[in-house]
């Protein structure tokens, strides 16, 4: 369980620090350490929007920290020095209120902590104690600010106007659209590359930033689906979205999507989609009727893309 702690402070201004190549920190690692580090970091939200070069610098700068059962990794009230990603081990989160410490959550062999003090220039908001022997990967304050915080600020500047311009997001408040900017990740696909596959479970929603995406569907109902050639049913251009149908209907992907030329998409995972795009859901549901009309014209059936309604 991860507990969200409220922090009231002025956010760190990434423009105040220069990107000094001379200050870059590198901790050498064995192949085994590098592999374990990459595995531990693959689902860390703060890292999802880094480009390959930035991610490489982050991995270079991280260092392994072994911990003993009962050890305090960070203490509430201290200055922030490192951001931590859990490699292995269990940890409890304690918050002291009126002089009394209370356990408010825990980590079990995955997750990260320590970013609040680094992002908002505040003392540590909680104490993290190891409840088993374990290992962490640490990222120092300077590198965290130089890459992670500055990258998030640049991403907001880059995508804020684009997100504001999307018609299907007009029903969101300005603050809600800014949250969309904070959670999106950028993905680039080469010509012919598959973005989503019909029949797969859905984990992401996509908005086309540049390029063109071809949406195809294979006919259902025969034993050898591979011989039922895929039919193109739509194309998506800049500002258009796809992948929402499976998230709205909670069914497997109803179609496949492939890049035409080089395509850049903004991607949002299913948890963020459900949390942030609720006000847009009616627009997306209305579009299902249009999809069904297209499928009836092409296949003579709506392909059961949604459950029959009474």
TrEMBL record:
Q: Name one GO molecular function term.
A: kinase activity
> What is one cellular component GO term in this UniProt entry?
cAMP-dependent protein kinase complex
The cross-references to CDD domains, in alphabetical order and at most eight, read:
CAP_ED
Q: Where does 3',5'-cyclic AMP 1 bind?
A: 115, 124
Indicate whether Nucleotidyltransferase appears among the record's keywords: no
Keywords on record: cAMP, cAMP-binding, Kinase, Nucleotide-binding, Phosphoprotein, Repeat, Transferase
Q: Which domain of life is it from?
A: Eukaryota
Q: Domain Cyclic nucleotide-binding spans what residues?
A: 46-165, 168-294
- UniProt: 3',5'-cyclic AMP 2 binding residues: 244, 253
The UniProt entry, under InterPro entries, shows: cAMP-dep_PK_reg_su-like (IPR050503), cAMP_dep_PK_reg_su (IPR012198), cNMP-bd_CS (IPR018488), cNMP-bd_dom (IPR000595), cNMP-bd_dom_sf (IPR018490), RmlC-like_jellyroll (IPR014710)
Protein family per UniProt: Belongs to the cAMP-dependent kinase regulatory chain family.
UniProt function note: Regulatory subunit of the cAMP-dependent protein kinases involved in cAMP signaling in cells. Type II regulatory chains mediate membrane association by binding to anchoring proteins, including the MAP2 kinase.
The record's annotation in PANTHER family points to: CAMP-DEPENDENT PROTEIN KINASE REGULATORY CHAIN, CAMP-DEPENDENT PROTEIN KINASE TYPE II-BETA REGULATORY SUBUNIT
Name listed for the protein in its UniProt record: Protein kinase cAMP-dependent type II regulatory subunit beta
Q: Which organism is it from?
A: Rattus norvegicus
Which gene specifies this protein's sequence?
Prkar2b
């Amino acid at each position: 369980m991860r507990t969200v702690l409220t922090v009231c402070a002025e956010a760190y201004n990434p423009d105040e620090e220069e990107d000094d190549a001379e200050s870059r920190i590198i901790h050498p690692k064995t192949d085994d350490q590098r592999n374990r580090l990459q595995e531990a970091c693959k689902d860390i939200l703060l890292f999802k929007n880094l480009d390959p070069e930035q991610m490489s610098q982050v991995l270079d700068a991280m260092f392994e920290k072994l911990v003993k059962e009962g050890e305090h990794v960070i203490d509430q009230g201290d200055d922030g020095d490192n951001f931590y990603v859990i490699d292995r081990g269990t940890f409890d989160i304690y918050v002291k209120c009126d002089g009394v410490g209370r356990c408010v959550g825990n980590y079990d062999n995955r997750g990260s902590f320590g970013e609040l003090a680094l992002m908002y220039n505040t003392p540590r908001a909680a104490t993290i104690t190891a409840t088993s022997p374990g290992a962490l990967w640490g990222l120092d304050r300077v590198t965290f600010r130089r890459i992670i915080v500055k990258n998030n600020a640049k991403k907001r500047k880059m995508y804020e106007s684009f997100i504001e311009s999307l018609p299907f997001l007009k029903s969101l408040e300005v603050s809600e659209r800014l949250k969309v900017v904070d959670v999106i990740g950028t993905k680039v696909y080469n010509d012919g590359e598959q973005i989503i596959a019909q029949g797969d479970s859905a984990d992401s929603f996509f908005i086309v930033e540049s390029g063109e995406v071809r949406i195809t569907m294979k006919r259902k109902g025969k034993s050898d689906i591979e011989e039922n050639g895929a039919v193109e049913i739509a194309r998506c251009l800049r500002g258009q979205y796809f992948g929402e149908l499976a998230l709205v209907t909670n069914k497997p992907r109803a179609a496949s999507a492939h890049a035409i030329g080089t395509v850049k998409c903004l991607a949002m995972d299913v948890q963020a989609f459900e949390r942030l795009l609720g006000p847009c859901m009616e627009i997306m549901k209305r579009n299902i009727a249009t999809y069904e009309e297209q499928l009836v014209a092409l296949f003579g059936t709506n392909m059961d893309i949604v459950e029959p309604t009474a």
